Amino acid sequence: MVEAKLRDAEHAALLVVDVQPDFMPGGALPTQGGDEVVPPIARLLERAPSRYVVATQDWHPPGHISFASSHPGCSPFEVIELHGVDQVLWPDHCVQETRGAALHDGVPWRHADLILRKATDPLVDSYSAFRENFAPDGRRPSTGLTGYLRELGVEQLYVCGLARDYCALWSAEDGAQAGFGVHFLWDLTRPVDASNDASVQRTLQAAGVEIVTGVP
Protein backbone atom coordinates (compact mmCIF):
# COMPACT_ATOMS: atom_id res chain seq x y z
CA MET A 1 0.00 0.00 0.00
CA VAL A 2 1.05 3.59 -0.55
CA GLU A 3 0.06 6.86 1.07
CA ALA A 4 -2.73 8.83 -0.57
CA LYS A 5 -1.76 11.46 -3.09
CA LEU A 6 -3.59 12.29 -6.30
CA ARG A 7 -1.13 12.52 -9.17
CA ASP A 8 -1.34 13.82 -12.73
CA ALA A 9 -4.61 15.70 -12.16
CA GLU A 10 -4.73 16.81 -15.79
CA HIS A 11 -5.33 13.21 -16.92
CA ALA A 12 -7.05 11.85 -13.79
CA ALA A 13 -10.64 11.14 -12.82
CA LEU A 14 -12.17 10.45 -9.43
CA LEU A 15 -14.78 7.67 -9.45
CA VAL A 16 -17.20 7.86 -6.51
CA VAL A 17 -19.15 4.61 -6.28
CA ASP A 18 -22.70 4.34 -4.89
CA VAL A 19 -22.61 6.76 -1.97
CA GLN A 20 -26.32 6.35 -1.24
CA PRO A 21 -28.44 6.17 1.94
CA ASP A 22 -29.34 2.50 1.51
CA PHE A 23 -25.64 1.62 1.92
CA MET A 24 -25.32 3.62 5.15
CA PRO A 25 -25.88 2.20 8.65
CA GLY A 26 -29.62 1.83 9.08
CA GLY A 27 -30.16 1.50 5.35
CA ALA A 28 -31.59 -1.44 3.46
CA LEU A 29 -28.12 -2.87 2.69
CA PRO A 30 -25.72 -1.21 5.12
CA THR A 31 -21.97 -1.26 4.77
CA GLN A 32 -19.85 -1.28 7.91
CA GLY A 33 -19.27 2.39 8.72
CA GLY A 34 -20.42 3.62 5.33
CA ASP A 35 -21.40 7.00 6.73
CA GLU A 36 -17.76 7.60 7.72
CA VAL A 37 -16.68 8.11 4.12
CA VAL A 38 -19.18 10.88 3.40
CA PRO A 39 -17.33 13.87 4.96
CA PRO A 40 -13.90 13.07 3.47
CA ILE A 41 -15.37 12.37 0.03
CA ALA A 42 -17.27 15.66 0.25
CA ARG A 43 -14.04 17.50 1.07
CA LEU A 44 -12.27 15.74 -1.77
CA LEU A 45 -14.86 16.94 -4.27
CA GLU A 46 -14.78 20.48 -2.89
CA ARG A 47 -11.00 20.62 -3.39
CA ALA A 48 -11.36 19.21 -6.93
CA PRO A 49 -7.94 17.49 -6.90
CA SER A 50 -8.68 15.63 -10.12
CA ARG A 51 -9.89 17.20 -13.33
CA TYR A 52 -12.96 14.98 -13.73
CA VAL A 53 -15.42 13.42 -11.29
CA VAL A 54 -17.74 10.51 -12.11
CA ALA A 55 -20.35 9.22 -9.64
CA THR A 56 -22.30 5.99 -9.92
CA GLN A 57 -25.80 5.46 -8.57
CA ASP A 58 -27.33 2.04 -7.96
CA TRP A 59 -30.79 2.34 -9.53
CA HIS A 60 -32.81 -0.88 -9.44
CA PRO A 61 -36.31 -1.22 -10.84
CA PRO A 62 -38.78 -2.84 -8.40
CA GLY A 63 -38.57 -6.63 -8.45
CA HIS A 64 -34.97 -6.67 -9.68
CA ILE A 65 -33.60 -10.17 -10.29
CA SER A 66 -30.84 -9.68 -7.70
CA PHE A 67 -33.36 -9.20 -4.88
CA ALA A 68 -34.05 -12.19 -2.65
CA SER A 69 -37.70 -11.14 -2.69
CA SER A 70 -37.80 -11.96 -6.41
CA HIS A 71 -36.97 -15.62 -5.69
CA PRO A 72 -39.64 -17.37 -3.59
CA GLY A 73 -38.15 -19.36 -0.74
CA CYS A 74 -34.78 -17.55 -0.86
CA SER A 75 -33.29 -15.27 1.77
CA PRO A 76 -31.03 -12.22 1.56
CA PHE A 77 -27.32 -13.08 1.15
CA GLU A 78 -28.14 -16.55 -0.14
CA VAL A 79 -26.10 -17.45 -3.24
CA ILE A 80 -27.82 -18.93 -6.28
CA GLU A 81 -26.75 -19.61 -9.85
CA LEU A 82 -27.91 -16.88 -12.22
CA HIS A 83 -27.00 -16.74 -15.91
CA GLY A 84 -24.38 -19.42 -15.31
CA VAL A 85 -22.51 -17.74 -12.43
CA ASP A 86 -22.94 -17.29 -8.68
CA GLN A 87 -25.25 -14.47 -7.66
CA VAL A 88 -25.65 -13.08 -4.15
CA LEU A 89 -29.29 -12.32 -3.43
CA TRP A 90 -29.67 -8.94 -1.79
CA PRO A 91 -32.31 -7.25 0.33
CA ASP A 92 -34.40 -4.87 -1.77
CA HIS A 93 -32.24 -1.74 -1.97
CA CYS A 94 -31.68 1.39 -4.05
CA VAL A 95 -35.06 1.01 -5.73
CA GLN A 96 -35.64 3.73 -8.31
CA GLU A 97 -37.20 6.96 -6.99
CA THR A 98 -36.91 5.92 -3.33
CA ARG A 99 -35.11 7.90 -0.67
CA GLY A 100 -32.56 5.14 -0.16
CA ALA A 101 -31.56 5.29 -3.82
CA ALA A 102 -30.81 9.02 -3.82
CA LEU A 103 -27.24 10.22 -3.88
CA HIS A 104 -26.24 11.11 -0.32
CA ASP A 105 -27.02 14.75 0.36
CA GLY A 106 -23.80 15.19 2.34
CA VAL A 107 -21.71 15.15 -0.84
CA PRO A 108 -21.54 18.18 -3.21
CA TRP A 109 -22.59 16.37 -6.37
CA ARG A 110 -22.53 19.63 -8.34
CA HIS A 111 -18.84 18.85 -8.87
CA ALA A 112 -19.63 15.59 -10.70
CA ASP A 113 -19.19 15.68 -14.47
CA LEU A 114 -21.21 12.49 -14.93
CA ILE A 115 -23.68 10.56 -12.79
CA LEU A 116 -23.95 7.03 -14.14
CA ARG A 117 -26.97 4.99 -13.10
CA LYS A 118 -26.48 1.23 -13.08
CA ALA A 119 -28.49 -1.96 -12.41
CA THR A 120 -31.40 -0.53 -14.40
CA ASP A 121 -31.97 -3.78 -16.33
CA PRO A 122 -34.40 -5.90 -14.27
CA LEU A 123 -32.70 -9.12 -15.44
CA VAL A 124 -29.04 -8.17 -14.91
CA ASP A 125 -27.21 -7.11 -11.76
CA SER A 126 -24.55 -4.43 -12.04
CA TYR A 127 -21.70 -3.91 -9.59
CA SER A 128 -19.08 -2.27 -11.80
CA ALA A 129 -19.13 1.25 -13.19
CA PHE A 130 -17.70 -0.13 -16.44
CA ARG A 131 -19.58 -3.33 -17.19
CA GLU A 132 -22.75 -4.94 -15.97
CA ASN A 133 -22.72 -8.41 -14.43
CA PHE A 134 -23.36 -11.42 -16.63
CA ALA A 135 -26.45 -11.14 -18.82
CA PRO A 136 -28.57 -14.11 -19.95
CA ASP A 137 -26.48 -14.38 -23.14
CA GLY A 138 -23.26 -14.76 -21.12
CA ARG A 139 -21.89 -11.31 -21.92
CA ARG A 140 -21.06 -8.46 -19.56
CA PRO A 141 -22.52 -5.41 -21.33
CA SER A 142 -20.56 -2.16 -21.26
CA THR A 143 -21.94 0.91 -19.48
CA GLY A 144 -20.06 3.19 -21.89
CA LEU A 145 -17.82 4.64 -19.16
CA THR A 146 -14.58 3.46 -20.76
CA GLY A 147 -15.27 5.36 -23.96
CA TYR A 148 -16.42 8.44 -22.04
CA LEU A 149 -13.17 8.59 -20.04
CA ARG A 150 -11.05 7.92 -23.12
CA GLU A 151 -12.70 10.83 -24.93
CA LEU A 152 -11.71 13.08 -22.00
CA GLY A 153 -8.10 11.90 -22.13
CA VAL A 154 -8.26 10.23 -18.72
CA GLU A 155 -5.37 7.88 -17.95
CA GLN A 156 -5.44 7.59 -14.15
CA LEU A 157 -8.51 6.62 -12.13
CA TYR A 158 -9.00 7.03 -8.37
CA VAL A 159 -11.77 4.85 -6.93
CA CYS A 160 -13.67 5.40 -3.67
CA GLY A 161 -17.13 4.69 -2.28
CA LEU A 162 -19.33 1.70 -1.51
CA ALA A 163 -19.10 -1.13 -1.14
CA ARG A 164 -15.42 -1.99 -0.89
CA ASP A 165 -15.99 -5.72 -1.45
CA TYR A 166 -18.47 -5.44 -4.33
CA CYS A 167 -19.14 -2.37 -6.47
CA ALA A 168 -15.94 -0.43 -5.71
CA LEU A 169 -13.88 -3.61 -6.12
CA TRP A 170 -15.45 -4.62 -9.44
CA SER A 171 -15.14 -1.06 -10.75
CA ALA A 172 -11.43 -0.97 -9.92
CA GLU A 173 -10.81 -4.37 -11.54
CA ASP A 174 -12.68 -3.45 -14.71
CA GLY A 175 -10.98 -0.06 -14.89
CA ALA A 176 -7.58 -1.73 -14.76
CA GLN A 177 -8.64 -4.27 -17.37
CA ALA A 178 -9.71 -1.38 -19.61
CA GLY A 179 -6.17 -0.02 -19.42
CA PHE A 180 -6.45 2.78 -16.88
CA GLY A 181 -3.96 3.20 -14.07
CA VAL A 182 -6.25 2.51 -11.12
CA HIS A 183 -5.69 3.66 -7.55
CA PHE A 184 -8.05 2.31 -4.88
CA LEU A 185 -8.58 4.80 -2.04
CA TRP A 186 -8.90 2.17 0.68
CA ASP A 187 -9.77 4.51 3.56
CA LEU A 188 -12.56 6.10 1.50
CA THR A 189 -14.33 2.76 1.05
CA ARG A 190 -16.28 0.53 3.43
CA PRO A 191 -17.31 -3.14 3.08
CA VAL A 192 -20.52 -5.05 3.40
CA ASP A 193 -18.43 -7.65 5.26
CA ALA A 194 -15.03 -6.68 6.69
CA SER A 195 -13.98 -10.34 6.75
CA ASN A 196 -13.59 -9.95 2.98
CA ASP A 197 -10.85 -7.31 3.31
CA ALA A 198 -7.86 -9.63 2.85
CA SER A 199 -9.46 -11.21 -0.20
CA VAL A 200 -10.25 -7.77 -1.64
CA GLN A 201 -6.63 -6.69 -1.26
CA ARG A 202 -5.37 -9.82 -2.98
CA THR A 203 -7.83 -9.37 -5.83
CA LEU A 204 -6.86 -5.73 -6.34
CA GLN A 205 -3.16 -6.53 -6.32
CA ALA A 206 -3.65 -9.37 -8.81
CA ALA A 207 -5.49 -6.93 -11.10
CA GLY A 208 -2.62 -4.43 -10.94
CA VAL A 209 -4.56 -1.88 -8.88
CA GLU A 210 -2.60 0.32 -6.52
CA ILE A 211 -4.07 0.31 -2.99
CA VAL A 212 -3.78 3.77 -1.45
CA THR A 213 -4.13 4.45 2.29
CA GLY A 214 -4.93 7.70 4.03
CA VAL A 215 -7.08 10.52 2.67
CA PRO A 216 -5.73 12.58 -0.25
TrEMBL record:
One of its GO terms (biological process) is pyridine nucleotide biosynthetic process. It is an enzyme of class 3 (hydrolase). Residues 12-213 form the Isochorismatase-like domain. Gene3D superfamilies: Isochorismatase-like (3.40.50.850). Keywords: Hydrolase, Metal-binding, Pyridine nucleotide biosynthesis. SUPFAM superfamilies: Isochorismatase-like hydrolases (SSF52499). Pfam families: Isochorismatase (PF00857). Pathway: Cofactor biosynthesis; nicotinate biosynthesis; nicotinate from nicotinamide: step 1/1. Belongs to the isochorismatase family. PANTHER family: LD05707P, PYRAZINAMIDASE/NICOTINAMIDASE. This is nicotinamidase. It comes from Halorhodospira halophila (strain DSM 244 / SL1). The lineage of its organism: Bacteria, Pseudomonadati, Pseudomonadota, Gammaproteobacteria, Chromatiales.
